[in-house]
């Protein structure tokens, strides 16, 4: 088909090529199709764009009618962070569950099956896996998204995940370089700072990224974090020392470097998205992720114009922008060459996610069989932006299916424990928590509940750092739908 690309100058085409924008709706808006015709090489999908795998496949087909080699990106980690199954919860446990099992073959199988499902929907670029070492137990944004707190474990599972997913023809993106695990602040809201020596970073945080490079990850995502030992002034996303000297020079990485969402407060609040975009490309980033929050044509225009103006003003070398655009096109070519054939679904293993979730479940104490339908009290924290609050979690839905008559309620705040007791009445209580160790109100609620009802079953669906308690304690290592099902099966005795 004839596009507008022939009428677009090279500089503007390159500026559009390095953007990875999102959009609103479940079909492609006219402005997005027009921009693809003008040179846009990537489009990002978020939960708001998804209703079903069939709808996503139709959407990606609509997009590729404009440009056959288009990169379609998504943030599909499995586990707590799912976009493809945003309305139901994921069919795959997340990284922390896979790390708890510590079977690299299983991690590779899970990633391959998730990759097959993405590819079947027309997605060929996944902003995953998290290669962060979750060394700070109070980390508010990584947590169960990491394979764990052990460097070597994270490294070997990062490599296995990359190998598995890319075997399905979906490019991976190891994140968040140089490591977001030792932070106590969510970069969606402010600028995290990691104050450790360079040798600690080299021996802890950088090891999984070295493994990702060795495994052939087609992309790496930068973190919006300040690491003074590496660059005392600029966050990683804007730092030439980190993106070019360290990642490309020392680690020898030659693939695509994409930023975390440029509209996140850590960058947008301090630099603005236009300036942040220019500085990121100048520092060595090749693509700008935008669209989690800002997803309109005006944003695409602002960022592409900012890049063009920076080149014309001598603030951004034209060669650097051209090099970045070529790396995007190189990834597009890889994705096109590795597109799975018609027989790819023959190797599908639809049960691998549930099998993995069952293996990740850890039970402490004795699970007495239920004699009547229980009451499920979910102690619900505020979800971080990466996870979102659209995705259901917990064990109630699965227990209702297995034990008809099960009732449930959600509680939070200072009176959560007493409110849960009143709601439960005489029923046995299943208390569901998520990162109890990070939420004092949640721990206090369990104190109240267990003092009155020591037969309570506790299900921890976050990082199991708190001491196990209750008549029985189940650690699922994540809140994916399959993790809830594994716990429900154990509670119901099936």
Briefly, what is this?
With 494 residues, the protein is of the alpha/beta class.
List the helices and strands and how they pair.
Layout: H1 10-17, E1 19-21, H2 30-38, E2 42-45, H3 53-64, E3 71-74, H4 95-101, H5 104-120, E4 125-126, H6 151-167, E5 173-177, H7 198-215, E6 219-222, H8 240-250, E7 256-259, H9 265-271, H10 273-283, E8 288-290, H11 297-312, H12 318-337, H13 352-360, E9 362-365, E10 375-379, H14 396-402, E11 407-411, H15 416-424, E12 429-433, H16 440-452, E13 457-460, E14 472-475, H17 481-492
Parallel strand pairs: 1-8, 2-3, 3-4, 5-6, 6-7, 10-11, 10-12, 12-13, 13-14
Antiparallel strand pairs: 9-14
Helix pairs in contact: 1-11, 1-12, 4-13, 5-6, 6-7, 9-10, 10-11, 13-17, 14-17, 15-16
What does this structure look like?
The chain is of the alpha/beta class and about 500 residues long. The protein is globular. It has a six-stranded mixed sheet, with helices on one face. The longest helix has 20 residues, at about 320-335. It has helices spanning about 10-15, 30-40, 55-65, 95-100, 105-120, 150-165, 200-215, 240-250, 265-270, 275-285, 295-310, 320-335, 350-360, 395-400, 415-425, 440-450, 480-490; strands spanning about 20, 40-45, 70-75, 125, 175, 220, 255-260, 290, 360-365, 375-380, 405-410, 430-435, 455-460, 470-475. The chain starts with 9 loop residues before the first helix and ends with a helix. Helices cover about 40% and strands about 10% of the residues. Strand 5, helix 7 and strand 6 form a beta-alpha-beta unit. It has 17 helices and 14 strands. The model is unreliable at about 1-5 (pLDDT under 50).
């Amino acid at each position: 088909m004839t596009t507008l690309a022939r009428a677009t100058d090279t500089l503007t085409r390159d500026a559009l090529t390095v953007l990875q924008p999102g959009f609103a709706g479940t079909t492609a808006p006219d402005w997005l199709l027009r921009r693809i015709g003008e040179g846009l090489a990537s489009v990002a999908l978020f939960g708001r764009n998804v209703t079903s795998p069939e709808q996503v496949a139709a959407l990606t087909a609509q997009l590729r009618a404009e440009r056959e080699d288009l990169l379609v990106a998504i943030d599909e980690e499995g586990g707590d962070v799912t976009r493809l199954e945003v309305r139901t919860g994921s069919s795959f446990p997340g990284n922390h569950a896979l790390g708890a099992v510590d079977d690299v073959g299983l991690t590779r199988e899970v990633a391959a099956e998730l990759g097959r499902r993405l590819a079947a929907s027309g997605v060929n670029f996944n902003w995953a896996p998290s290669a962060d070492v979750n060394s700070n137990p109070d980390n508010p944004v990584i947590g169960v998204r990491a394979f764990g707190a052990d460097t070597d474990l994270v490294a070997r599972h990062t490599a296995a995940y990359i190998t598995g997913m890319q075997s399905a023809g979906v490019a991976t993106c190891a994140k968040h370089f140089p490591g977001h695990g030792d932070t106590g602040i969510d970069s969606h809201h402010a600028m995290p700072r990691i104050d450790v020596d360079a040798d600690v970073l080299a021996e802890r945080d950088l090891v999984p990224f070295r493994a990702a490079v060795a495994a052939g990850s087609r992309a790496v995502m930068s973190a919006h974090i300040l690491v003074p030992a590496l660059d005392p002034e600029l966050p990683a996303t804007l730092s030439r020392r980190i993106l070019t000297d360290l990642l490309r020079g020392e680690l020898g990485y030659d693939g695509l470097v994409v930023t975390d969402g440029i509209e996140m407060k850590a960058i947008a609040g301090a630099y603005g998205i236009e300036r942040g975009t220019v500085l990121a490309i100048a520092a060595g980033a090749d693509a700008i992720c935008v669209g989690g929050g800002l997803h309109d044509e005006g944003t695409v225009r602002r960022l592409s114009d900012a890049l063009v103006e920076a080149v014309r003003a001598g603030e951004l070398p034209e060669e650097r922008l051209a090099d970045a655009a070529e790396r995007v096109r190189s990834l597009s070519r890889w994705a096109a060459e590795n597109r799975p054939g018609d027989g790819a679904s023959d190797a599908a293993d639809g049960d691998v996610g549930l099998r993995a979730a069952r293996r990740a479940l850890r039970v402490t104490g004795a699970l007495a069989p239920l004699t009547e339908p229980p009451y499920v009290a979910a102690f619900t924290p505020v979800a971080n932006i990466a996870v979102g609050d659209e995705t259901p979690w917990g064990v109630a839905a699965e227990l209702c299916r297995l034990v008809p008559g099960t009732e449930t309620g959600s509680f939070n705040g200072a009176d959560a424990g007493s409110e849960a007791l009143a709601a439960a009445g005489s029923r046995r209580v299943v208390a569901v928590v998520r990162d109890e160790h990070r939420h004092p109100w949640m721990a206090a609620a369990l104190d109240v509940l267990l003092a009155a009802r020591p037969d309570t079953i506790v299900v921890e669906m976050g990082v199991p750092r708190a001491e196990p308690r209750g008549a029985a304690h189940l650690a699922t290592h994540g809140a994916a739908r399959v993790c809830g099902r594994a716990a429900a099966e154990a509670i119901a005795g099936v």
